[in-house]
Write a structure and sequence with these properties.
4-stranded mixed sheet, 5 helices, single chain, 38% helix, 2 domains, PH-domain like, Butyryl-CoA Dehydrogenase, subunit A, domain 3
Length: 278
């Protein structure tokens, strides 16, 4: 469900940013003549990112002021970049192969578009004597950028399978003796499982468990007697994923590897990406 909510958010943001190129950003009227201002960094030999269309008996096009026009020129290419990254991100969500770096650059671009669009709205001035105001194109780009940030953020991780609410440390009710020995580690082989942004859902001999990435303290790749991925939790529970474990690797950012060993190495890298302390 979370994946499809993320996809819907990205597609709505994509549609709004496309409308930013279709709908006027500003409109005005004076003595029966109409004025509409569109985002178009390619028109008028790139003299301005805002192109004004004035229609009376005849329609003519002309560039706007240098400062808002120049900012809009940059903004126009930022909107195009956001559209491209949203389209790719939506495709990867459908394939269940998200790329974290793409989401990060998409958020950075959306923030830039938000700032530039706000500056254009503040600096734009219509022709003297004209009653001008903001039209639908400008709210579309602002809302589309906000939805881009939401869609590319980790807010949907809370709905992913395997999410576990992080545990909060509690003060010990009794002091621990200095000579107390640590509890022996529990080591279990993982039979099957799956993982997502928030954590893992695994099947062990003792039954199914859920583990959040933030609960892990160690992630190693021992090669003897066979290559395996060992994940150690805060309570000393060692989860051993081997090449024989039936793991769904489709959620890896680069997709499943060519071999089982590749999958274990990629899952190890993914775990370290989700928990930087590993």
């Amino acid at each position: 469900m979370a994946r499809w909510l993320k996809l819907a958010t990205l597609l709505v943001a994509l549609g709004l940013l496309v409308l930013a190129y279709v709908l006027p950003w500003f409109h005005g009227a004076s003595h029966g003549d109409t004025l509409r201002v569109f985002l178009n960094p390619f028109a008028l030999r790139g003299e301005s990112g805002l192109v004004a269309e004035m229609c009376g008996g005849v329609c003519i096009e002309f560039p706007t002021g240098r400062l808002p026009g120049g900012l809009a020129w940059l903004d126009g290419f930022g909107v195009l970049g956001s559209i491209a990254m949203l389209a790719i991100s939506a495709y990867l969500v459908v394939r269940d192969r998200p790329i974290a770096q793409l989401g990060l650059w998409s958020v950075i671009t959306a923030i830039g578009v938000l700032v530039l669009s706000a500056l254009v709205a503040l600096l734009f001035e219509g022709p003297e004597g004209w009653d001008t105001g903001i039209s639908l194109g400008l709210p579309a780009v602002l809302l589309g950028s906000i939805l881009t940030i939401v869609g590319q953020s980790s807010v949907f991780e809370l709905l992913e399978p395997g999410y576990v609410e992080p545990e909060r440390p509690h003060a010990a009710s009794h002091p621990v003796a200095a000579t107390a020995s640590p509890a022996p580690a529990r080591r279990e082989v993982v039979l099957a499982g799956e993982f997502a942004f928030a954590g893992l859902r695994l099947t062990l001999d003792s039954g199914p468990i859920r583990v959040g990435w933030e609960e892990l303290v160690v992630a190693t790749l021992p090669s003897y007697p066979e290559l395996a991925l060992e994940l150690t939790t805060r309570d000393g529970h060692v989860l051993r994923i081997t090449t024989a474990s039936r793991i769904d690797y489709r959620f890896l950012p680069e997709g499943p590897g060519a071999t089982d060993a590749d999958n274990l190495r990629r899952l190890h890298a993914f775990a370290r990406e989700r928990n930087r302390s590993l």
